[in-house]
Amino acid sequence: MNANSSISSASLDTNAKLSGSRGFFGNISSRLGSQPLMGSCNIKAADALLLLQSYEESQQGWFWSTDASGNLTYITESVARALGGASAELLGKPMASLFCKSADDDAGSRTLPFILTKKVKFSGLEVQAASSEEECWLSISGRPYHDKSGNFLGFRGSGSDVTAQRKLTSDTSRLAMFDSLTGLANRASMAKKLETTLAAYRSQQRACAVMLVDLDRFKQVNDTLGHPTGDALLKLVAERLLKVVGQAGEVCRLGGDEFQIMLRDCDDRGVLGDLASKIIRSLSQPYSVGGHRCIIGASIGIAVSPFDGLTSEEIVKSSDLALYEAKGNGRGRFRFYSKELQRSVEERQVLAEDLENAITNGELELAYQPIVNAQTNVVEGFETLLRWNHVKRGRISPALFIPIAEEANLIWELGEWVIHQACKDAAQWPCKARVAVNVAPSQFANQRFPKIVDAALQASGLSPERLEIEITEGVFTGEAHETDAMFQALKSRDVRLVLDDFGTGHSSLGHLQTAPFDKIKIDQNFVRGATEPGSRNGAIIAAIVALAEAIGMETTAEGIETMDEFDLIKKLNVSHVQGYVYSEAVSNADLVENLAGGQWTIEPTGPAHHRNDRLSMYRKVRMIHENHVYSIVIRNLSVTGALVEGLYNVPIGTKFVIDFGDGQLAVATVCRSTRNQQGIKFETRLVSDGNGGLCTSRRVSPYLIAEAGLEVPNLPAGHVPTRKMDADSLSLPAFSTVADWEATKVKAK
Fold this sequence. Notes:
- The protein is of the alpha+beta class.
- The protein contains 25 helices and 31 strands.
């Protein structure tokens, strides 16, 4: 009896406490009736209330209730604090006002009131706390309750914290769409975005460009300094890419050291080329990673839809071919896609096989370009240049076969042959001029290289101080102590060391302080433009010369071709000059003949001023005038004009449209005319094609060409309705209507 009394008393106290609370527990308590909690049934009800209270305190879940107007009548204290206040402060406020949005990103202020207005049961609605200091997501469920007469009294419900689950889902989703190392979009994300964009642009006839960026010499950094350093370097590369591209496009990391850039509504190859050059310059600047100074580079392939493909697969394949060509032509450059690239790839594969036998077949030879004292005009040395006379193809440019040699792992064999042959030739010269040999970073990093130098000097009998080893800043990407050890090994043999391409932005003054160089070669691209008004290059060259003189080094300016450049270089006290202003590279036989008197003195000659580079060629194109199409030949080409032949007595001032093919049309005016040759000037400057050639900045859209009645390889049959044209009704179109020019051209044949 006493025990039962104690239980009843405790139950009454608990019931009084809970029934005094408004809302959820109060309503439950009221349903138990107003009688004291007596007997086993009432004891179980009280235990249930205690269990619910314990559940709240565990914070595994929470409860809430509202009145008929949607205002809170009860909310668990712990969740009330998460929502920005104590439960007493929140009671009476609209339930919906506590949340800002639902899981589907629609505003919760719209979704939750709609549900509450409908007075229907709901479950698992995820909403975000509006006033929480930290991100807080809650899953809530509820059902309406009514009195005995069926009148709606409000909602009762429960909830749970799902913040952790949502963060996990968000992180998983992010990992699926973004690169975990750099934070850039990943391959899958960009592929989906590119496909969606191109699909939409096909119907809108809009352009979209894709750039593939591949890092040069990254593998060397990764292998020598380790993967953590390589990963840190990739993060810095991503930062630079984002900074250069900005809002112009979207950047993703495909994986490894490959990146992709998508540029919407961009088909101007002048703009694309400028951006590619800017990216290459930025990525080629030195990096500081974990106490190491790293220098890499970049090559870029560019393709533009719809010109170079319609689908994402086609446009990526085109840009990949362009990238392969860029890397194959010397790296550190960009290349636009063209239809000839597939043939070029096949030719490179054949050349790689032929190059393996070039040495044994006697197809390789050396040429030597004089290095002249700028004050005395006396030749004091020669730079060794490798030439390949293919048995079937004739002379092949080093810009083509040297990258092939690097890819085919033939550069060591070629380099060894060059240094032996150069020393052998120099030892037979009738003077003591120096011979300079270029050494690739991979050769310099090889521990066997000093022994190769020893063997070449010993076999030829050449004095070591007459041999100059030319290296670029690429040798500094390896471990510092290994690089220093190689410097010391070479200097102990009394050979001279030359830092090539100085002034391109890669070289560090620290290298001049620590590395035992004997000479600095100022890069020709740095010299070019030094005489133009407003250029700062002259002042920088003067500073380089002053620095070199202070630490006892000679200087050589490369690529000097005009007299104004020569006069400036001489005035700035550059000690030596190399370039066409003195001489092009000559054969060993011609060199020996010129040195027969004991020394070779050359008087500088050349154009007075630098002009736009002109490319000599023999290229057949079509030229359109009125309703006639003529086949002509371009003999030389520059960004502003060309020399053409094939027509006679063309009046000065005549306008033509030059059809370069592949949608490239340029309006030109005849400014000189002599019998069958005309000098023409373009209305719009041509731009670099990234491979040493020139192209029009814009092309005629394939859609316009198709509409004019021409077949376009990239567009499937019937993709664009073609116009039916009556040959008898053709007339001279306005020069700005390029699509009509194309139509006229076809009908005029």
